[in-house]
Every structure is written in C-alpha cells, then in structure tokens.
Design a protein that fits this description.
The complex is a heterodimer of chains A (about 150) and B (about 725). With about 150 residues, chain A is an alpha+beta fold. Chain A is built from six helices and five strands; from the N terminus they run E-E-H-E-E-E-H-H-H-H-H. Chain A has a five-stranded mixed sheet, sandwiched between helices. In chain A, helix 3 crosses helix 6. The mean pLDDT of chain A is about 95. Chain B is α+β, with helices and mostly antiparallel strands and about 725 residues long. In chain B, a hairpin with a 4-residue loop joins strand 9 and strand 10. The chains are: A alpha+beta (about 150), B alpha+beta (about 725). Chains A and B meet through helix 1, helix 2, helix 3, helix 4 and helix 5 of A and helix 18 of B.
Chain lengths: ~150, ~725
C-alpha cells in the first residue's frame, strides 16, 4: 500500500511500489490527463508536480512518492481557471493537445518560481517538453500572457 | 476516469430524440439529405442523423472531421452551420459513425466514398456537400414557418437560428419550429446559386474558436489511450525487429509458417511473470497480455524470440541509396512514366546549355506524440465488436477490425477519439486489428499500446529516395526541357509532388524507378513532396544562380511560372522583402510548393554555426493560396505547425536501417525540434482569392528543405544535396 496526496485528495494504492508513477496515476487512480509519450523521460508529456517540482512521472516509481504531495493537470485548478490555462485558451495553443498537460505543468512550475520570466528563461525552462505539432511559439506567448496577468 | 458504456444502439438513440432529425442518405445520385421518415422507408439505405434540432433550440451537427490537431472537427460542422444559418453558440458537435457510405466524400481518385482525413482533404472535399446539406435544412425550417404563418416561403429570411418575416416582424426560432415542424418526404433541392454569398458569411472566414481547445488545457480531451472499460486488460507488443518477420523458426520445408510453435520464444517464463494473462501471436510479433500496462510491458521486455526470415533481412538503408544510383544509371531498369510533355529529346538536343543535379533523402518517422494504441471489446457471442481509436480513417479501421475478426463491417462499431497527432500514420487500422485479435483470443476487453520504441522501430516511414534532374535551356536562358527521375521504394508515396504544374516548362519527362525492400512505408505529412520539392527547387535555384538571375525572377520568366504561382511569389516578395540585405552571416532562400490544391511560396532566413555545422533558421515567411479560407486562425495554426514539422524533419530527423533493423529507438536518437530551435519569426499570409477551399494541413511543410538549401548556398557557396541537413552532414558539405 502506497499513500500520497493527489490533487488535494488522500490516495492509497494497493500497487507494487515499483509501478511507474505514470501508470499508477493513469490506470490505478484513473486520472488520464497525464500522458505517456516516450516512457524514458525524454519528451515531458507525463510531467506532474511532486512537492511543487515538475517531474517526469514515467521515471519515478509510485513507492518513491509515499507521503508526498502530487498535482496533475486535473488538480492545477478546479475549473481551468489557472492563469496558464486561461492564457492557453486565448492564444489557442493546443493542436493535437497530447503534450499540453505536460507543457502546462512544466510552465506552472516556472511561474511559481519566477512570476516574470524572460523569453530566455521560458526557452530554457521549457526546452525538454516536445510538442510535435510545433506550437512552441504559442506556448511562449501563453506563458508571457499569463505572467503579465492578462 | 473514462468508463464508457455503449449499450445504447444508434437506432435507439435516433428513436428517442425529440425534435426534427435530418439524415444523409446514399442513392444512385450520390449523397443527399433526406427526412428521417423517408430515409427509414428506403429498404437498403443506411441512414444516420446528421443534423438534429431540438425544441430547446440546441442544434447537433455531426462531424466527420477526425481531429488530430488540425481543427477539422470544428471546421466541418461550421460549414453546415453557415448555410443552415445556425446560432453557433447553440451548436453541439458529435462524431459521425464510421460509415463511409453515409458520411464519406467521393474519393477524388476513385469511385468509392471515403472518410479518410488525409492529404489535407477534410475541408476541401466536404465543403460543397456540407454547404448544400446546411442550406437544405434551412429551407425546410423556412417552409414550416411559412406554412404556419400562411405566407410565401420566398418572402421569409433567417437570422441566426431564427426565421423572420420582414413584412410583419414575426419570428420563430429554429427550436420553436422543431417542436411542430414536419419534414417533407422529398427534401427541397438546393441550387448552387442559392448558397450564401461570400459577403454574407457569418462563420466562414471568421476565425471561430476550436471546440476542442478547452478540453485540451485541463486533461479531459479523450484520446483512445485514455479509454477504460470494465474488465479491461492491457497488451504490449513486441514486433519483429526486421519488418514483416514472424515469431517462430522459419522452416523452408513447411507450407504454413503461421503455425510456428511457442518453443520459438520463452513462453512459459513470460507467462509465469506477475500479472501476465497470456501471450498472443500476431502476424509480425507477439502480444503479452496482463492486468496492467506496466506488467504487460515487463512481460514484453522479457520476451526472447526466434524470428523467421524476412525480406528485409540484412537491409542497409545507406547501401540501398547507393543501389538507387546504379538503378538510375542502368538503361535496362524498369521505369514508370509519370509525365510526358512535348519533345524532351529535341529540347535537349537543341539546348544552349544543359544542367544536371542529384539529390538524396533518408527515411522519416511520424513521431506523433501519442504512441499507437486502440481499445477493443467483443461481445460474448463474438458477433459484435466495439473499437475505440483515434483514426484518420475510421472507415478503414472498422474494415480492418472486421476483417481480422471475420465479421462484417456492420458488426463493428467504431468510436472516434482525439488523436495525439496523426501525420499520415493513423489511417490503416493495423494496430486496431491487432488489438481485436488479442481481444478475441483472451475474451476480455483489451487496450493495446505500442511502446515508443515499437512505434519508431515499426515505422511506417516516409520513403528514402535518390533523384536525378536534368534541364535544357535555350539561348535566352529559358528552361525548355525538364527530366526528373526518382528512385526508391514506396510507389505512390514516392511520387507525390514530383510534377510541376506551377511551372510552364514545355517539354517534360518525369519517371519513377521502383525497388522493394520489405520495409514498412506510409503517408507522412506531404510524403514525397518533402524530398521531391527539395530536389526540384534546389535545382531551379542552381540554374538561377548560374544565370545570375534573381531567384523569383528566374521562376517567373525562365521557368514560366503560372499566374497563380506569380501571385504567391509576389506576396512572398512583399512580405519577406527578400532582396533587402540580410544581417552579416545570414542569407535568405526561397522555394515554392503545391499540395492538395493549394500553392505556397516560402522563404527562410538562416545562419550557420561554422564550427558545429548547425543551421539556425531565424525567420520563415509563407504566402499561400488556399482558396477561400474557412477558418483563418486554424488555417494559420496549421501552416505554422507544418513549417515547424518541416524544419524539424529537415534539420534533425533521420531513420537509418542496418542489418534490417531500425537503429533509432526513442527521442534521444530520433531528434525532433525543441523550443530552443524555434525561429524568431513565423510569418504566414493567405493571398486573397475567391476560389474554392483547398488543403492546408501540409502546404507549410514541403517548401522548407529547398528554401534552407538555397539560403545555405547563398551563405556558403555550397549546396546541400542530402536530407536531412544534420550538423555532421552540413559540416561535411561546408568543408568540402
């Protein structure tokens, strides 16, 4: 049994501690907003927050998050009201949308640490998250919009 | 949590609806809209609702626009809503069933009805059909209002979702009409002249937000990989490392190789692993089935298989490219003529000067972000299957599953999901058919997910190519003769974009010389255009440079560019100011491409890191003739996406095959573009025209390679001739 806080809820899972956190969240808990892209920590589609730090959930075992606080895209805001989510809609960022949960979670970590990031800060912070539809320029625009509170 | 129950049949859904239902039906005269009552009396017609209007005013429009990020899911119903004069805020969108006889467009290359959302087809091929359907529903609503008011329908008008009588100001909303209205046995005909004037469009051309966007910022958009059914188990496949082999020792003396024995793999060992339920043999691999995906994958990773022999055994992609050169040089090699115009021999015999150039390109992989996957459930009697998949061709997937299970198409219900990228890969239903076979064998609902490693290793790929181009010019420098030969595997995949209808060269001979390697190949965002346009436009640039003529001027005057091409070049010249001096260390290159009826001229401004060979693209411009633009914002996003996809493939992406096995395995060695390589500027403009919409999903991609290679020549005096332009290759060219 592994217990942790997920999106403000206490969760106890009867899963092998070696279960990859990604699959524990998606299949054992049933929150599917966090995506499988590469399974090797290379694309960022599975990005979630663990104690406020953006982590690749495919690279962590569920046993390693016992007692920790996790936030997935479903828990970022109850009603898509996080400034990044609002900016994402205004800038019409998503195309296929598959990487976007990971992009938003990665960007949310940035704004939490650095509310007014420069363009260079954004590029450096977001470079590990692949978007195959090539929405990078809109991701930048949305992060800048959110950082300005617009 | 996406537990889905689909016990409701479509027919019962239909029967239970209030309001009016309009149906699309197939007759000898093609697809037409008809009343439900009439449709239901047609003994052999397949009928399904297309537009429904509820008494509360809610309008449901079904969408055949499979959604992989391009926005067609919204654009297609919007075309119906425009002519229906619907209040868009009251329109709900649902997926159509996967029945091409009802929901398909006519195959432009055949006679069948298809639902394939490929080749940038959705808006251009559904446009007229959907406008007509919307106009017909509007006419029925007007007729009902006219009857109620006792007036001539011709005197009535509509505002969004309201029929209005201008004579007395009387109004009836569409919902109010739905509550009492009837549908005539024969629906009114719509003359194309009755369709709205462009100036009256309220939705077309107005950048209406996509309906899927809100679901894609909070994790609720449902992809097939997110579907969960009661009692569902998980499957992970291991396909043969060499394409098209099978698990099992190959015995040349045996007729039936499919009967390969489990002793060809460590069956007992894997079956004893935690959570493993079974192992299912597939045509080209094995599937480990388990209680969870991670246990299925662990089983899959533990498999040790002896594979049969396959055609691609020992295949080397590098060696094959060298073979292509020999095939081109071989006068006895088989060639397929693709284009013959005028007298090429005479043009070359009488030429003032001739030119010659050769180009190569490597295999490319789609790298869609959502690895291939599907969910299948078969009922206990084995006579009904449900499939969940994100598919560019739901009709093909349904067929593939039906075939795999020995069922009729009608016994398979296809449930469309959002696609985490398609790019041409998701139109076969191959993995859905695999999932169906697994579900049949384990008698449980199954979710099959290919690992990223499988997704890369199994392709299917954009083919590699060798190309030779020759041209003849007359004394004035005008190109009078043109020869282009492409060599490679992939037949129709190899030849897209090889013709040059945007140029007026009078004498042309274009051919393909084919080989077959046993490597799996597939459509890929504009496929052949990527390497063919690269070769064509690099070659044209080479001639322009040789003649000392401005590159656009050369294309207009000496290649005989068509008026349509002239228009996009003029727009490009204006927006890019391409003659202006660039900053030190930078150069601009231009190219043109057609795709799916659209025409685009593009330019890139690049610099080169001379120590590493890394090309940086700073600015990109594209001027595009896509006809009337139905959704400008989505269209622009599409072109931007194709530009990035093009840049990524041209600068980073390369699949190589050695000893029959793909050498790349994940995003560490199949490099796709990341944010740090994003150009500082992406400029997209649609030229103002009044012609029908043409395809826009791919037009932003094929001009990139030629534009970069032409800019590189202007920067270095060297010409890049082999795609992709990886830093090592660029350095080699630069230092040569």
């Amino acid at each position: 049994m592994v217990s942790f806080t997920l999106n403000n809820r206490q969760v106890s899972l009867d899963a092998d501690p070696s279960t990859p956190l990604l699959w524990a969240i998606r299949d054992h808990v049933g929150l599917t907003g966090t995506k499988y892209g590469c399974g090797a920590g290379l694309c960022g589609a599975c990005t979630i927050h663990v104690d406020g730090i953006a982590q690749r959930s495919c690279q962590m075992d569920v046993g390693s998050v016992a007692g920790k606080t996790l936030v997935t895209i479903e828990g970022l805001s109850p009603d898509s009201s996080h400034p990044l989510q609002k900016a994402w809609i205004v800038e019409e960022v998503p195309q296929c949308g598959y990487c976007q949960s990971g992009q938003i979670m990665k960007a949310a970590e940035l704004l939490a640490k650095n509310p007014k990031p420069s363009r260079a800060d954004i590029m450096t912070h977001m470079d590990g998250n692949i978007c195959r539809c090539g929405t990078y320029h809109r991701i930048i625009a949305a992060i800048e919009r959110a950082s300005k509170g617009a | 949590m996406n537990i889905i129950d689909t016990n409701l049949s479509r027919r019962s859904v239909l029967a239970g609806l209030g309001g009016m239902a309009f149906c699309i039906a197939i007759g000898n005269d093609g697809v037409r809209l008809m009343s439900q009552a009439q449709a239901n009396t047609l003994a052999n017609a397949s009928v399904t609702p297309w537009v429904r209007i509820a008494p509360d005013g809610r309008i449901t429009i079904l969408s055949a626009g499979a959604e992989m990020g391009q926005g067609s899911m919204t654009s297609l119903p919007l075309i119906v809503a425009e002519e229906l004069d619907a209040d868009w805020s009251k329109v709900a969108i649902e997926w159509t069933p996967a029945d091409a006889k009802i929901y398909g467009y006519k195959d432009p290359f055949g006679t069948e009805q298809l639902m394939w959302i490929v080749g940038s087809r959705a808006v251009q091929l559904y446009f007229t059909q959907l406008r007509t359907a919307g106009a017909q529903v509007r006419k029925v609503l007007i007729a009902n209002a006219a009857q109620k008011w006792g007036v001539d329908p011709a005197t009535l008008k509509t505002e969004p979702s309201v029929v209005v009588n201008p004579a007395n100001g009387a109004r009836l909303t569409y919902g109010e009409i739905a509550a009492f209205g009837t549908i005539p046995a024969t629906l009114p005909a719509v003359d194309p002249k009755e369709l709205k004037d462009r100036k009256d469009f309220r939705l077309i051309g107005k950048s209406v937000p996509r309906r899927d966007t809100p679901l894609k910022v909070n994790g609720t958009a449902q992809y097939a990989i997110d579907v969960k059914l009661p009692g569902m188990v998980y499957a992970s496949t291991l396909h043969s490392p060499v394409h098209n082999a099978q698990a099992g020792i190959w015995d040349p003396g045996k007729q039936d190789q499919s009967a390969a024995a489990p002793e060809s793999w460590n069956d007992a060992e894997v079956k004893a692993m935690k959570g493993v339920i079974g192992i299912v043999k597939l045509a080209n691999g094995l599937a480990v089935v388990a209680d969870h995906f991670e246990t299925a994958k662990a089983g899959r990773d533990a498999l040790k298989v002896t594979w049969s022999r396959a055609k691609a055994d020992g295949f080397s992609s590098a060696r094959a490219l060298d073979d292509y050169v020999r095939i081109h040089a071989d006068p006895n090699a088989q060639a397929v003529k693709l284009e013959e115009k005028g007298d090429v021999k005479a043009a070359f015999a009488g030429a003032a000067k001739t030119y010659h150039a050769e180009f190569r390109s490597d295999y490319g992989y789609h790298a869609q972000m959502e690895p291939l996957n599907a969910v299948v459930r078969i009922n206990d009697a084995g006579d009904k299957a449900d499939v969940w998949e994100g598919s560019q061709a739901p009709d093909e997937s349904r067929k593939a599953v039906a075939k795999a299970l020995g069922l009729k198409d009608e016994q398979v219900d296809f449930h469309q999901c959002y696609m985490g990228g398609g790019f041409g890969r998701r139109s076969l239903g191959d993995y859905a058919a695999e999932c169906a076979l697994i579900a049949k064998e384990v008698r449980r609902p199954v979710k099959l997910i290919w690992t990223r490693e499988e997704d890369i290793a199994q392709g299917m790929f954009r083919p590699q190519s060798f190309q030779c181009l020759e041209a003849a010019t007359d004394a004035s420098g005008k190109v009078t003769g043109w020869k282009h030969c492409v060599v490679g595997d992939g037949e129709f995949l190899l030849i897209t974009g090889i013709k040059i209808p945007y140029y007026g060269v009078p004498n042309q001979y274009i051919e393909r010389r084919g080989v077959s390697h046993g490597i799996k190949l597939k459509h890929w965002r504009a496929v052949g255009h990527v390497f063919n346009t690269f070769a064509i436009e690099s070659f044209v640039d080479q001639m322009a440079v040789d003649q000392g003529v401005d590159p656009i001027e050369f294309r207009l005057e000496r290649m005989g560019a068509t008026p349509k091409a002239r228009k996009v070049f003029e727009a490009l010249a204006q927006m890019s100011d391409y003659k202006a001096k660039r900053p030190d260390g930078r150069a601009i290159g231009i190219s043109i491409t057609e795709r799916s009826g659209s025409l685009g001229a593009g330019a890139v401004e690049i610099s080169l890191e001379r120590a590493t060979g890394k090309i940086r693209v700073h600015k990109v411009w594209a001027a595009i003739d896509g006809g009337v633009i139905v959704q400008p914002a989505a269209a622009k996003a599409n072109v931007e996406s194709a530009i990035i996809y093009g840049l990524s493939s041209i600068l980073h992406e390369r699949v190589t095959i050695k000893n029959g096995v793909v050498e790349q395995s994940n995003f560490h060695d199949y490099n796709v573009m990341r944010m740090s390589d994003l150009p500082e500027e992406l400029n997209v403009r649609f030229v103002e025209v009044d012609t029908r919409p043409t395809g826009l999903g791919e037009i932003g991609n094929p001009f990139i390679a030629g534009a970069i290679s032409n800019a590189f020549y202007r920067l270095t005096g060297k010409r890049l001739r082999h795609l992709p332009f990886t830093p090592e290759r660029v350095l080699e060219t630069f230092k040569a």
